[in-house]
Amino acid sequence: MSEAREHHLPPSRRSVAFWRRWHRWIGLPAAIFLAWSAATGFVVAFQEFFGADEALREKLRTVTSPVTTSSMATDGGADLQRVLAAVAARAPNAPVDKVVVQFKGDPDPTVSVFTGKPSGGEDKQFVVNARTGALVSVEDYADKPFLYRLHSGEAFGDGGLVFAMGWALALVVMTLTGLVIWWRIRRIGATGIRRLFWH
After folding, report:
1. pLDDT at residue 195, rounded to an integer
2. Model confidence at 194, in pLDDT bands (50, 70, 90)?
3. CA separation for the pair 44, 8 (Å, rounded)
4. Residue 175 falls within a domain, yes or no?
5. N- or C-end of the chain: fewer Cβ atoms within 10 A?
6. What is the CB neighbour count within 10 angstroms for residue 178?
7. What is the per-residue pLDDT for 189?
8. Chain mean pLDDT for the chain
9. Distance separating alpha carbons of residues 168 and 149, to the nearest angstrom
């Protein structure tokens, strides 16, 4: 609607036209980013729901750990030297980022050793049987999976995060302007469901 036509409208109609114009201007780029966020969010949720990590969490959720705070010192401690020796056989002198002990193992507890690269960054996750020291599995390790960083915009660096915050704010503005438009064109005298929805 042109500025000249808006000038001849009643104040209430001019107000609605103003909010609709802003709603439309923000709507197109926001819709693109909403589609991006929705698509990557769906894949993230799908992997969380059907992934192996979630299956293991569900499996162990009702299992009671055989290790307690009282028995930890006697029969719950993993032999860290034996675990690290098993990892060193596959990755000599690899930097160790962190070590995670999973007491509710199946059938034995496990120790996950996360190694980094000599130049920095994440590298591998070694899962070792805490009782025998046998290597169970070796997987690629990333502190934050690429799909999560893609969803948040972090995959494109700090600029991607700033951009993601911008499009999130754009979606908030879209919601608010839509609510303002809905409020201003509502039917004052309507009753029942027509107070919220109308043609």
Report:
1. 59
2. low
3. 50
4. yes
5. C
6. 14
7. 65
8. 79
9. 15
* pLDDT tens profile 5-50: 555 555 555 567 777 777 777 777 777 877 888 888 888 888 878 8
How far apart CA 19 and CA 154 sit, in angstroms, is 32
Phi-psi map region of 160: left, alpha, beta (phi>0 left; psi -120 to 50 alpha): alpha
**135 and 86 in one domain?**
yes
pLDDT at residue 28, as a whole number: 72
State pTM to two decimals. 0.57
CA–CA gap between residue 76 and residue 68 (Å, rounded): 8
Q: Tens of pLDDT along 39-77?
A: 888 888 888 788 777 777 787 788 887 777 776 655 545
Cα–Cα dist 105/111, whole Å:
9
CATH at residue 99:
3.10.450
Indicate whether 40 and 84 sit together in one domain: no
> In percent, how much of the chain has pLDDT > 90?
19
Question: 93 is in which domain, residue-wise?
Answer: 78-143
Examine residue 72 and state whether it is found in any structural domain, yes or no. Answer: no
Residues 121 and 160 in one domain: no
Instruction: Centre a 10 Å sphere on the Cβ of residue 72 and count the other Cβ atoms it contains.
Output: 11
Extract the tokens encoding 32. Answer: 């693109």
